[in-house]
Amino acid sequence: MKILVTGGTGFIGSHTSVELIEKGYDVIILDNLCNSDASVNSIIDSITNKSHVFYKTDLLDEDGIERVFSENEIDAVIHFAGLKAVGESVQMPLEYYNNNITGTLNLLKVMRAHGCKKLVFSSSATVYGVPKSVPIKEDFPLSTTNPYGSTKLMIERILTDLCAADKEFDVTLLRYFNPVGAHPSGLLGDNPTHPNNLMPRIVDAALGKTEALTVYGTDYPTRDGTGVRDYIHVMDLAHGHIKALEHMGGMKIYNLGTGNGQSVLDLVKSFERVNGVKVPCVNMPRREGDVAECYADASKAERELGWKATRDVDDMCRSTWNFALKSRK
Ligand code: NAD
Ligand code: UFG
Fold this sequence. Notes:
The protein is 41% helix and 18% strand. The chain has a domain at 2-182 and 230-257: Rossmann fold (3-Layer(aba) Sandwich), CATH 3.40.50.720. The strands form four sheets. The protein has a seven-stranded parallel sheet, sandwiched between helices. With 329 residues, the chain is α/β, with parallel strands linked by helices. The protein contains eleven helices and 14 strands. It binds nicotinamide-adenine-dinucleotide and uridine-5'-diphosphate-4-deoxy-4-fluoro-alpha-D-galactose. Uridine-5'-diphosphate-4-deoxy-4-fluoro-alpha-D-galactose (UFG) binds next to helix 7 and strand 8. Nicotinamide-adenine-dinucleotide binds next to helix 1, helix 5, strand 5 and strand 7.
């Protein structure tokens, strides 16, 4: 099968491309490189010992997407490409709506024109807004708290309507919780230019790039007062996409998480212990828009896809540090 991976040079897309190639799929990567580097392509090839096709194409360029589909018989698409910084989306809503929604509509139009009707979409736990309780199940109420989240929810609705109108479309929405970790080679990982998420900021504090990790909120109603999230290893997440592809049929929705909540301090302590480094911390007030606890009920993916996260927090911390020392710029 020939799979088009949009956003395939990004963090999750690159790990998934490796997994796909290793499972025998033909991979075509489309990315405009707005948040990744073309060198990731040769890293993917060197890890897998195989080559893949890469198009530097923007999803806002419909003719460019058309070229990719005319030159290749694509069987299915895994759609990672999108802008993902919550804070930035509040500052630049038009750019976020245009990139994420127009980009997806362009992709869908070209897919339909070429009779390619299988899509796996990168959604997010952000579509649960402030969850009514935890663990979160797929049928919980949906809402959003920022433009980034709204783009994810709107795309989910567009895809739901498309599947209702055209029964030949198979769409799987994967709602990721908090992806962290890196490829065991240390050659692929998360390499943000302006780190906002917890794990890259732990790394910066451990490397001495920042004075300390700012712990946002120590007065949440959680076991140690800090925010609790469901951190999931990017290799497990990559594997989840293979399982999703193997089980397509109509409209499907799955949480991809471990089902376990870890606090900010839990993650810091694990990172210090497994890597033998210090992560200086400074307590700060709560960050606006954060919820106390967010973790998945991941049992539907286990039941229906036969997928379960297998890597623990120690693996996540170890592989992140390995990548940081080997490859992070
Ligand atoms: P990433 O930024 O590393 O990868 C996204 C890739 O898409 C980048 O390589 C970027 O250059 C590309 N891209 C963006 N807009 C494009 C466009 N118009 N045309 C072509 N390429 C474009 O992000 P990631 O962490 O790998 O996330 C992948 C997907 O998963 C995103 O859709 C993101 O919203 C979603 N997601 C991520 C997280 C997370 O915490 N990392 C959580 C939930 C959902
Ligand atoms: N945190 C800190 N200090 C930091 C950064 C984060 O204490 O410097 C805390 C946050 O307050 C939160 C936890 O670490 O309690 C996790 O924060 P992240 O920013 O790493 O992740 P979020 O859960 O806020 O959001 C992430 C993605 C969203 C996605 C969501 C659910 O950034 O895009 O997971 O998938 F929607």
